[in-house]
């Protein structure tokens, strides 16, 4: 494995983990897993994140072929520095402190709109249906599609998606995809298995601080590195 792949992998893995822990999609996966079969929620959320990671890396990989590499390099540098300052601002101004409550309120509103079924009854009904359905039908169940759509559109235009595009434009795209997928799998699995209890124990301020410092380090490294011709 070449050094460029390892570097892209390590940067993408670290960036993904620190961007996704405490994110809205992390909380959504945790809450959905409390109400529906975990296997379906994990499959839906993770599928959406893998599709988004590959798509973002492809956009980043294609960018240097459409515009001069020097431009993409400088844009990537500015993105990393900007996201770093953004994350630090969130950390010191509690910009993400209410995300768990916000996501839970939105999902509760959707639940009431679908007939006002209680969480416990909904969970039992889902488990019974899961036992009766064939495997193929479960893969196209409304629960899996709901988890997929919530995660996909929640990530669209998010900080982590734009950062993945910038990273793939400046690093080996294969390493970026591999690191991103593994990072997404780790975070989503933790959210689904840990549930809301894990989400409540996460210090969003420390995650935002760590992510902000990491983005700034990436930005400085990008600024100091030479542009490949």
From TrEMBL:
The protein's name in its UniProt record: GDT1 family protein
GO biological process: Golgi calcium ion homeostasis; Golgi calcium ion transport
Gene Ontology CC terms: Golgi apparatus; membrane
MF-aspect GO terms: calcium ion transmembrane transporter activity; manganese ion transmembrane transporter activity
Membrane topology value: Multi-pass membrane protein
Natural source organism: Coffea canephora
Subcellular compartments: Membrane
Segments passing through the bilayer: 40-64, 70-89, 136-154, 174-194, 206-224
Organism domain of life: Eukaryota
Entry keywords, A to Z: Membrane, Transmembrane, Transmembrane helix
Principal cellular location given in the protein's record: membrane
Keyword Transmembrane helix tagged: yes
This protein's record includes keyword NADP: no
Similarity comment: Belongs to the GDT1 family.
